[in-house]
Amino acid sequence: MIKILKIIFVGILTSFFFFPVEFQALPGINTKMMLAAIGLVLFVFTLVQKREFSIPKELLVLLFLACLVSLVALFSITINHTPDMSYVTYIVSLSVWMSAAFVVCVCIKAVHGRIDVELVLDYLTGVCVFQCIISLLINFNPAVQRLVDSIFRQGQELLQEMGRLYGIGASLDVAGSRFSTVIAGLGLYLSESKFRLSLKKRNIYILSFVLITVIGNMIARTTLVGTIIGLGIILVSFLFTGWNALSDKIGSLASWLILLLFAIIVSVYLYRTDAQYRDLFRFAFEGFFNLVEEGTWETNSTAKLQTMVVFPETMHTWIIGDGYFNNARSDINYVGDSTDQGFYMGTDVGYLRFIFYFGIIGLIAMIAIVSYSAVACMRRFWDEKIIFVLALIVGLIVWFKVATDVFLFFALFLCAAFVADKEEYGLVP
Prior knowledge:
2 strands
């Protein structure tokens, strides 16, 4: 019983890291910041305890790259005379993510006596499933909604006005991108026979995959990115598997078919009997409904996105940007045209927002951070390297839709590598 309570506690910490949220009683300070403050103390204590004051080289490289992003941002707003500090403090943001991730990893190892990729993924999966379930409870149970809203501050008024589902810190495209990294990881474990999942674990992974896909898309359709990547790697594995692994694949296929059939039956029943669920399903899979009913795959989001493709008109903007990431009208000195949707130049496309803010130079620096993070994780956890390739692909694809990166996913595993015992987990040098 004590062990279960410890696991639940670590699960809460993982949720507070992966989906940061503010408490109503502490406005302006989110759970990521709180964990980061604890993490700094823990990190110093760990170094003193080991009597080793060396810092992992991966962290040093990441700090250098983050410093580069901050300097490019500072140069851009200085040369453009703008007050938009969005990425000037990126070095601080990255440090906060790493420090907060360190707390989570230390607690995981303290509870289980070990830490590895599968264990971290288990916690992330559990957190994502919880967020999906609590979002439905918040949406359908006013008592739960009042309780959550009385404790946490997460812009729920706007979300309710938009008619969007939200969990505890999980909403919109930020939630969708993080769901996607986890689904992609589940896809790898379900596709690779070498991981030898037990029947129970495999079924839990499949059920989690389906739940996060269905409910996650109700929260944010960006979740579909991870679903497609996860299903893609599973399909490739089924098609190109060797004869020796065929029995494992057949068992996995049977589990898939049973759980998918169950999910379809439940979904169809809810769709036909409950108007609220019908609206949620139509929102989550709007593109597929439009494809069946109108012959074209399109959603309200993709239609809007097409109007947001606006390229810079000057070489100056291409190289170093205009110094605006947020709505330029927040600058009292701004005398240009009005912006749409609250974004500079009316675009929410991640790549374009980075270019308009600090040009190609800044965009390259941002890509360098997530790419190096993925490579560092691959080197540290070689057997599961594909998970980090998939997460990187998720991050690069999501930037076509929105400017939110998946660095925190890599941060968790980089800290796991630091906390883990090198010999025990087969990390390559």
